[in-house]
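Sample entry (271 residues):
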Amino acid sequence: MRWSRLAADLGPCGEPLARWLQCAALPATVAQAVSADAAGPDGAPLTACVDAIALVTLDGELRRLDRERHADMFRLVVGGQGVFGLIYSVTLRVDALLQAAEHALPPLEILAPGPASTDAIASEVETLLPPDQVESFQKAAHALAFERRVTLRRIAVCQLRQGAETALGWATRNWAGVSVRLETRATLGACVQTAEICRALHAEAIARGGSFPARAARRVSRAQLDACYPQLPAFLAEKRRYDPAERLQNAWYRSVTALMRHPVCDSRWTN
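Predicted structure, serialized as tokens:
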């Protein structure tokens, strides 16, 4: 179900949810958001509002996973980036979701002056920072963009709360979620440069005690992945135990497993 449909179906009760959705950077459907371990309206992981899920397994069967009765598998699938199966439906704690939406705060957005380029490629870098390190990180991001001669179009900051843990959970403490939008030219060299800048921004965040959501793991280095997600090898081992032939794959899984096998070499592109 799409978020917009859920809010509409709830009628007047869904108005706080609809307001939050206008400023929330969420996947389009509830299932996609749960799979990606997105934050809910109050900044805690959305999984806190999930009672159960229906999963389409590797064999094409529909299996219900309850938070309490199937705790181990539930923790792998929720926030599991889609590598254990397709989430067909989600049983939400609607009252808890609406209560969280009542207290939702919009992100603070810092926009760069000037019109957006019509032929530029936009890239979003998601980081997690201790709240007292946000200002320092912002300065580092601006300095990096100036050094690499790319446009820093927007920085958005939202409050994130410690909450329900999944196998690849990010909510180990209260964070400031800092999203940086960059604009680069649509050239091969610029694509290489963008990848470098993404890793450099993550390095700045980690140096300040920060991290990144697991869904952003495709754009980090092996060392950064090891530093922030030491539990990843155990997660991948569970994936291989469940799916020895690796029949179910997606872009996230292929990128992360390739990174684990062949760390990215350092590179530097100069204009």
